[in-house]
Structures are given as C-alpha cells and as structure tokens.
C-alpha cells in the first residue's frame, strides 16, 4: 500500500500546477458529496 501511495505521489509530481489544482478541486467536491450523504443519513 505504501509503495502504491509513493507511486501515486510520483505521478502527481509529473502534473503541472493547473492539473494539480483541478485534481484538488475534484477531490474537495467528492469529499463534500460524501459528507453531505453522511449528514443526510444521520438525520434520517
């Protein structure tokens, strides 16, 4: 798992800044969706 994580980290280094920002925004959106789902389930 650590080796896989390191490989992903090395791949990210190849991306330029714009692509890193796009990936970060995409991850943030996914996290927000997951949190919303958890909150909705908690209220039900």
From TrEMBL:
Transmembrane regions listed in the UniProt entry: 23-42
Keywords, sorted A to Z: Membrane, Transmembrane, Transmembrane helix
Top-rank taxon: Eukaryota
Protein's UniProt keywords contain Transmembrane: yes
Keyword flag Transmembrane: yes
Protein name: Uncharacterized protein
Species per Swiss-Prot/TrEMBL record: Bracon brevicornis
């Amino acid at each position: 798992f650590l080796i896989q994580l390191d490989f992903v980290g090395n791949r990210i280094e190849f991306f330029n800044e714009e692509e890193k920002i796009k990936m970060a925004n995409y991850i943030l959106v996914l996290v927000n969706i997951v949190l919303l789902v958890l909150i909705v389930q908690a209220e039900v």
